[in-house]
Amino acid sequence: MATTSIAGRRPHGEGAADTSSNLSLDAWRSQALAFEAEIGRAVVGQPHVLRLLTIALFARGHVLLEGDVGVGKTTILRAVTRALGGPFERVEGTVDLMPTDMLYAAYIDDAGKPRVDPGPALRHGEDLAVFFFNEINRARPQVHSLLLRLMAERTVSAFGKDWSFPHLVVFADRNRVEKEETFELPAAARDRFIMEIGVETPHDAEVRRELVFDPRFHDVDRLIGDLREGVIDHRGLNEVGRAIQSSVTTSLTLERYVLGLWDALRAPASVGVSIEGVDMDRLILGGGSPRGVGALVRSARVRAWLEGRDMVLPEDVRAVFAPVMAHRIFLDPIYEPRRERIVRALCGQVFDKVPAP
Amino acid sequence: MTRAFAPRSRPSLARYLAAAVVLLASAAPAAAQILDRSMSAPHPFGLLLGDVFTLRTRVDVAAPFKLDASALPKPGPVTYWLDLRSITIRESTTPGGATRYEIAAEYQTFYAPLEAIEQTVPSLKLVVTDGKGGRAEADGASWSFITSPLRPIAATAGAASAYGLRPDALPIRKSLRDAEIAAGAAGGATLLALALLAWSRAWPPFHRRPSRPFASAARAVARQAKAGDEGWRNAALSLHRAFDAAAGRRLLGEDLSAFLAGRPSFLRLEPRIRQFFEASRQAFFGAAPAVSRMPADELLALSRSLAAAERTS
């Protein structure tokens, strides 16, 4: 009899659990869209960037924003931080910044004694939600390697113990104009960013007029301050992220498609990609790491969830492909100066050539 | 050999006719409206199988009466041995104010006599009307002639003489060049039209035409769609490849609006195309394949509509 009752109960219990998790995922989706809309009040003309940031957040990945000076990279990250809520810390990258400067704050106290307090990274304890690294390419490789561990493992060692930051997201930005006194990010560090999002000046004339003439956009502090704080609960993101990854399915066809894209990226000539003025056989040194492709699938799942689907489509993969994969493609050095144009053409053509479904 | 009994026959007519003019008896009880009738005929003997002869009847009709041509016999067989080959009517006015009709009836005899025998050509029926209900009838003259059998002349010396029966003349071999040229031109035009049609519809050997991807997809769909689940998927793949070829890149569901915007001839099919992409998503990427997808018939119909739309674009 006991067996019967268990067998009778189990489907019911599972069904109920499914329903509740679906419900909460639906509720989370509307929160995510509200979050996006809230940032959109401060950041105009960049819906594409906001959508990618939202995806990265729910895919539990770190983001590097790249763009020209004054296009609003910092404003975007501040707005995201504000709408996300939770403790955040901000560090400006400089040439003389050392890793210890991020972990320890050393000073002479009122009594004239040297004191060492927790530095920016530790000041808020292990509940830190956002670590915001401005001008990351101005920092030295030593700092990059600290950041590497912080991003990869969400831990650091300081004061003789390990600190763990389970809810941490690292946002970084860098401008691509300056090359003086900068340190290129090592490939390993770049690979830790789930996305590298390019921010460009909005193309729409009306948006540009608004940005330049509307006084609302001149005072960034007030602009950010007007945003509602904590639209989503940053402590729930890890769990929701896991739920999304397990509830959104990828079919066999899609898996083959993604692997096909990956192959095409590693050997573009094999699918007939050709870029003007480029020897396709020697262009690619490394075409995306397994971690990178894993990040691609994670992001695609989140995008499908945001679109209200429970299956990943090629469209989802395409929408996140360039931000996730472009910075993980390593080109032959002679093509590096033309990197941006070549990688954009490569990503576009890969999608034009690999059949889906 | 000429017997001229026809005081009214004109000199030209007399010259034309070989032998005889038969004057109809004016005293015959003809209607008052038919003033005069006469017939002239060739000599009434020496006619052989296949000979053609003409009987000319002249009728004077008082005004306002007119000869009713519809009462005359039509060209064609008259009896089993006699054909009327043609009949012509010439109309003129007599000095007396009456209307004169000259009826020329051309006959051919096919009577094959075993010995000389007399045969009679039946008379014509002459009907005159005044157009107001008045009507009168009279018979023309009948004509008898002697027809003889065709015989070789046995008394002459040698079969090769000019009097011996000669073999039948060979039929003239008429040139068919014009007909051959016309048939050849028509055949060529047909082939050209067929080739154009095949080109337009992307039939073999034009089935790989780059600008007709949907035509070959429609054929592939027709081949595959009904072969179960796997067949449906292959058919859908064929159609996807056609969309890719038409777009010049891989076309995903989200790109449909942009794709259709540039192709007005496909706009009409938009709901069905979207339905196909939705069904394809479910089939290829959904968790529960084979649910809520497009039936094979609809898929086939869509592929054919697309091929038709492609021709007009």
Automatic annotation (TrEMBL), chain A:
Chain segments carrying region Disordered: 1-21
Residue ranges of every copy of the AAA+ ATPase domain listed in the record: 59-203
Gene Ontology molecular function, alphabetical: ATP binding; ATP hydrolysis activity
InterPro entries, A to Z: AAA+_ATPase, ATPase_AAA-3, CbbQ/NirQ/NorQ/GpvN, ChlI/MoxR_AAA_lid, P-loop_NTPase
Name listed for the protein in its UniProt record: MoxR family ATPase
